[in-house]
Amino acid sequence: MSETTGKSSPYQTILVAGGGSWGTALASLTARAGMATTLWARNDQVVSAINGSRENSIYLPGIKLPETLGATTDLAAALENADAVIFVIPAQYARDNLAEMRRLTGGKTLPVALCCKGIERGTGALMTEVIADAWPEAIPAILSGPSFAADVARGLPTAVTLACADKSSGERWAQTIKAPHFRPYLTADMIGAELGGAVKNVLAIACGVVEGKGLGESARAALIARGFAEFQRLGVALGAEAQTMAGLSGLGDLILTCSSRQSRNMSLGYEIGEGRTAKEIIAERQTVSEGAASAGPLMKLAGAAGVDMPICAAVADLVDGRTGVDQAILGLLARPLRNEGSPAE
Ligand SMILES: NC(=O)C1=CN([C@@H]2O[C@H](COP(=O)(O)OP(=O)(O)OC[C@H]3O[C@@H](n4cnc5c(N)ncnc54)[C@H](OP(=O)(O)O)[C@@H]3O)[C@@H](O)[C@H]2O)C=CC1
Ligand SMILES: O=C(CO)COP(=O)(O)O
C-alpha cells in the first residue's frame, strides 16, 4: 500500500453543481475546510434557504451549514472563478448539465469530480463516458463510497474512493475533500469506482424487496453475496481492478446501501416488497433513486459485455413493470444450480 504525496495543494475555489442532499453535504465539507465554495442549484428555494437560514430545508433538513457557504442559481457566474467542480447532479441529467458547463466556460479544462452514481438511460454510458462526450476538455475524477449525505454533513466518520487517472489532479482532489471525519483513498481505476456506485444502487433495491417482503436476514445476506458476484463479473469484463471492487466504492457502498432504509434505493425496494409499484413510489418522491433509472441501462451494458446478471435483471424487470415480486423471486430461486468456485476434478 502506498501513500499519496500529501504535498499537493487543494483546489481553492470550488463550484458544487447540484443542490440535493449530497451536493449540499459536500459543499458543507469543502466550505468548512476553508475553500471558497459556491453551491449552484437550479432550484431557487434551495438557494434562498441556504443563503437565508444556512439550511437546505428541502433536501437536507435539520443540518446547519457553514456561514461561508454561498449558493446561487447563476451557473455562469459560479463557473467564472471556479478552479474545480464537484458535480452532484443525478446521472440521467448529467450529460445536459455538463454540456452546458462546457458551453459556459468555452470548453475550459477544469477538474471535475463526478459524484453521481448511475448509468445513462438510452446509451448505457458510464459517467466518465458521458463527460468525455459532453465536456471532453474536463479532467474527470470519481468520488464514490459509503457515505449517506446526512451522516457526512453531521460530521460522522467515513472513508471513500477517489478515482482519477490524472495523478496530480487526483492528489489535489484528495487534499481538497479530506476532513478529519472524511477520508479519501486514491486509485487510478475510474471504471471500477464508478461501476460500484451504479451497481450497488440496483442491488439495494433487490435487498429492499427482500426486507419489505419479509424474506429474512439470511436471504438478504445471500443476495448481497450473489449480487457482489454479478458486479465482479461485470467489473472484470470492463477492466475494473479487484481491489476497487472489494473496496469502499464497491463492497463498502454495497454493504451500506443494502443494510439501511436510510438508502432511497433500499427503501424503494422495501415498498415494492410490500406490494406497491415502483412507478407510484417514484412519482411521490422528490428525491432520486438512481438504481431505478440505472437498472435498464445496466442490463444494456451487461448484455454488450456478455455478462450474466440475474439479480440486476430481475430488478430491471420489476422497476419497469415487466414482472411482479413473487415471480421475480421464484425466477431467481429456480435457476439451474451453479458452481460458486472451482468445480471438483
Ligand atoms: N444523498 C446521498 O446520500 C448520496 C447521493 N449520491 C449521488 O448523488 C447524486 C445526487 O443525489 P442527491 O444529492 O442525493 O439528490 P437528492 O435526491 O437529494 O435531490 C435531487 C436533486 O436532483 C436535482 N434534479 C432533479 N431533476 C433534475 C434535472 N432535470 N436537472 C438537474 N437536476 C435535477 C434536484 O434539483 P431540483 O431541486 O431543482 O429539482 C435535486 O438537486 C445521485 O447520483 C446520488 O446517487 C452519492 C452519495 C451519497
Ligand atoms: O450512495 C449512497 C450512500 O453511499 C446513498 O444511497 P441512496 O441513493 O440509496 O440513498
From TrEMBL:
It is an enzyme of class 1 (oxidoreductase). GO terms for molecular function: glycerol-3-phosphate dehydrogenase [NAD(P)+] activity; NAD binding. GO terms for biological process: carbohydrate metabolic process; glycerol-3-phosphate biosynthetic process; glycerol-3-phosphate catabolic process; glycerophospholipid metabolic process; phospholipid biosynthetic process. Keywords: Cytoplasm, Lipid biosynthesis, Lipid metabolism, NAD, NADP, Nucleotide-binding, Oxidoreductase, Phospholipid biosynthesis, Phospholipid metabolism. Sn-glycerol 3-phosphate binds at K117, G145, S147, K200, D253, S263, R264, N265. It is found in: Cytoplasm. This is Glycerol-3-phosphate dehydrogenase [NAD(P)+]. It comes from Aquisalinus flavus. The lineage of its organism: Bacteria, Pseudomonadati, Pseudomonadota, Alphaproteobacteria, Parvularculales. The gene is gpsA.
